[in-house]
Design a protein that fits this description.
Protein name: Carbohydrate kinase PfkB domain-containing protein
Mean pLDDT: 94
CATH topology: UDP-N-acetylmuramoyl-L-alanine:D-glutamate ligase
Largest sheet: 9 strands, mixed
Shape: globular
Organism: Streptomyces filamentosus
Structural class: alpha/beta
CATH superfamily: Ribokinase
CATH class: Alpha Beta
GO molecular function, one term: kinase activity
Strand order of the largest sheet: 5-4-1-8-9-10-11-12-13
Order of helices and strands: EEEHEHEEEHEHEHEHEEEHHH
Radius of gyration: 18 Å
InterPro entries: Carboh/pur_kinase_PfkB_CS, PfkB_dom, Ribokinase-like
Number of helices: 9
Domain Carbohydrate kinase PfkB: 188-288
Distance between the termini: 29 Å
Number of strands: 13
Number of domains: 1
Length: 307
């Protein structure tokens, strides 16, 4: 029996306020005149993964907790306008928010409001079970509700992926996600020894592969049984780099697209690199993702016609 959805995305909904700054780090001053301005828009990690997957033609369903507030309305509109199926659960503390400072070179600094989510937050088990039964794969954000949903996803027999973002390799909070996922993404930003962390995830968990993303340096892929990580170079964007926000989410979407199509891990990493490069050309105030035709065309150009 075929599944209704290719990917069930859990968690990661929120609203960002984008502030363009003249440089990062931002020197102290009494005030700055900001151009092109300050704008609030829907879209955090789960929203952008869902967008990336849907743009690549994968049947995607997103479930998360959001508030009954204007920020929640932005998230509802984000999914409705892009025809992404969305199951919302009330978050008593209100919709999650962040402020992103974006420099002229596209680098960003995110300030997350940590007051809106609590350890007691839960996604309804019956709802998660029903959606899991209708899906091929699950991608989970590292939030409290998703940690409690992991056993339900395993029970349903789904493969699971997660993004640990800027994990330092030591914080125990991330371990349930790191060791409970079949595919793990992590940034090298805070890792003192990326390869050691990648190996530990493979040794202690269920992952088949760990991907460490390193921005302009590309990414590193370590699969179970491999002698060493494989370096996958970054792809040069086809336009000016204006913002790195969402590049990691785009990378994960491209990688998952390849994996669900049965591609090798290295080909999946190339898909991820192409999708991530495209995301860097999208202004922080916008929400756009590469589509399947453009992705495959660029991969074909990079590999001499072998898409």
């Amino acid at each position: 029996m075929s599944s209704a959805y290719d990917v069930l995305v859990l968690g990661g909904s929120g609203v960002d306020t984008i502030v363009y700054v003249p440089e990062l780090p931002l020197p102290y001053a009494d005030s700055y005149m900001i151009r092109p301005g300050i704008e609030t828009r829907a879209g955090q990690t789960g929203d952008f993964v869902a967008l990336g997957l849907s743009s690549l033609g994968l049947r995607t369903h997103h479930i998360d907790m959001i508030g009954d507030d204007p920020s929640g309305d932005l998230i509802r509109a984000f999914h409705r306008d892009r025809a992404i199926d969305f199951t919302e659960v009330l978050l008593p503390g209100g919709t999650k928010r962040a402020v992103n400072l974006v420099g002229p070179d596209g680098r960003r600094l995110s300030l997350y409001d940590d007051s809106r989510s609590h350890e007691s937050d839960r996604l309804p088990e019956d709802t998660v079970r029903k959606l899991a039964a209708a899906s091929r794969h699950a991608h989970v954000s590292i939030t409290y509700p998703c940690a409690h949903a992991l056993p339900l996803l395993h029970e349903a027999g789904l493969t699971v992926s997660t993004d640990l973002h800027n994990w330092d390799g030591e914080n125990p909070y991330h371990e349930a996600f790191a060791y409970g996922s079949d595919l793990v993404f992590v940034s090298t930003t805070a890792l003192p020894d990326p390869e050691a962390t990648m190996r530990r995830v493979l040794e202690r968990g269920r992952a088949e592969a760990v991907v460490a993303t390193a921005g302009a340096e590309g990414s590193y892929l370590l699969t179970r049984g491999a002698d060493a990580p494989v370096h996958v170079p970054a792809v040069t964007p086809n336009g000016p780099v204006v913002d790195s926000n969402g590049a990691g989410d785009a990378y994960a979407s491209g990688f998952l697209f390849g994996r669900l199509a049965g591609e090798s891990f290295e080909r999946c990493a190339l898909y991820g690199a192409v999708a991530g490069a495209y995301a860097c050309t999208v202004p922080a105030t916008g929400s756009d993702a590469i589509d399947r035709t453009a992705l495959l065309a660029e991969v074909a150009a990079l590999t001499g016609g072998d898409a």
